[in-house]
Every structure is written in structure tokens, then in C-alpha cells.
Amino acid sequence: MQLRPAELIINDDGSIYHLNLLPEDIATTIITVGDPDRVHQVSNYFDRIELKKGKREFVTHTGIKNGKRISVISTGIGTDNIDIVLNELDALVNIDFSTRTLKSKHTPLNIIRIGTSGAIQPNIPVDSFLISEYAIGFDGLLHFYEHENMGFTDIEDAFITYCDWNANKARPYIIKYADNLAKLFIDNRIRLGFTATNTGFYGPQHRQLRLKPSQMELMQKLSSFSYQNLQLTNLEMETSGIYALAHLLGHHAVSLNCILANRATGEFSKTPSESVDELIKFCLGRLS
């Protein structure tokens, strides 16, 4: 089947529409970060940078670290941007742009998110690292694609019941990291977590400035929810979307979180940039 121009949008220079990248521009190991400025923070540790491109909030650097080719790309904030980035990265390796047809051989990508997050359990220290073993998505992105049961409906149902989940909101979905990729990062300094992905930073994460969140007790329910000793650990805004689309597209994904805030204790990191930098160095060391 040939993809129509309105489905696969290719720029005049042959690059994919939003990311402005050519198929040869990316490695099969890709680090995603939210902040475009963090791309430089990662690529600063490359031995050599072979490519720098950017369009809108999407900045990409590809280079070499200890002989391994790695790309780092900024996604911006939220699962709406993740929908763009994951689909376009997949298109770069699994669609023939010259014929607008799917390639017969599938190329899997290893996708590692390096992001910041806020803990909701008091025993998770600020400036610590957490790997999202599971993610629960409140974003609804998965439901816009055909998919089979991910195997966690029992936990989803228990969560919906316990939190008295509003039927006007998308059904939460749960998905796990890619075990084969995650094993690279298992370490005593990184705790395993159950991450909640939210659709915003203020009301969806129950911060109140001038607008009052619709369900003020939900934060307490999130932190106290437990299913067979599985507790929610932290909040952020991209992981469930990355895990969901990576799974559907046949890629491997893992999310590494630097805990900059603890919502239970009210603390915020005094050295956020330095803490994120430590996570970047840890990640690159394991990859290369």
C-alpha cells in the first residue's frame, strides 16, 4: 500500500515533516529528552557529533560515544508530542520514502527517555533516580490506535475503582518497559517505579494556582493506591505514550527519571541541573 502525501508528509528536502530528519540522520539507539536545551547537555559527552538539526521544539544531535552511534532528540512536553516523535522516528527506519511503502524488513529502535519527575511517596529522595518499570497513562493516547489488551486490566480496573475515576476522562492504561533494554540500566542506585503519566503540569497533577483541580482528593488516592504491593511512585508527562507507541510499533523503550521534586514532602531539588547531568552520564555509560 502506498501512503498518500497527506498521511506521510515529506518536506522538499526529503526529510520527515515535523522532525526535519532524513532516514540516515538517526541511529537505532535514541535518547529522548523533553527540553531542547538538554540535547546539548547529552551530546556534550559524545566523542564526536556528526549531525545537528532542529525544527520547532524538535532538536536532534547524532554522534559517537565510545564507538557507539547514538541520537538524542528533544520531544517537548506531553504525550501529544510523543505521538509525533515516535511515529516519525518509526517512519524514518521502517518506511521507504522514495516509494511511500512499508519496508519488508522491520528495524527496531532502542528508545531511552531521560526525564525529570516528581515523586509522590515520601521515602523517594529528591535527586534520586527511578526507572519506570510500569507506567499508567491518563492521557488516552493508546486508545486512538488499534491495540490488544496489554495484560494489566486487573490493575487498571482496581485503580479505576479505588480512585473513583471520572468516566468523562480517558480510561487509564498500564504498560511495562522493554525488559531486554531495561536490564542495561538495572543498578542499586536506581529504584524500580510505577509511573503515572499526566496530561498537564498543573490541574492534571493537582497543583493549584488560581484554578482548583476538579478532584482534590485524587492526589492522596494516587499515593495510597496499592495492588499486590505495586504502588505508584512518581508523576511525569511522557512515559506511557513512549511505552505504548514503542510497543505497538515494535520498538524497545525505557524511561529513566531524575526525581527533582517530592510532592509528599514538598521538597524540590537545590541542584536540578547537576542531578540530571549525573543521570545523563549514567545512561551514556551503560549504553556505550
Automatic annotation (TrEMBL):
Residues 29-266 form the Nucleoside phosphorylase domain. Signal peptide: none annotated. InterPro entries: Nucleoside_phosphorylase_d (IPR000845), Nucleoside_phosphorylase_sf (IPR035994). Its EC number is 2.4.2.3. It catalyses: uridine + phosphate = alpha-D-ribose 1-phosphate + uracil. This is Uridine phosphorylase. It comes from Maribacter sedimenticola.
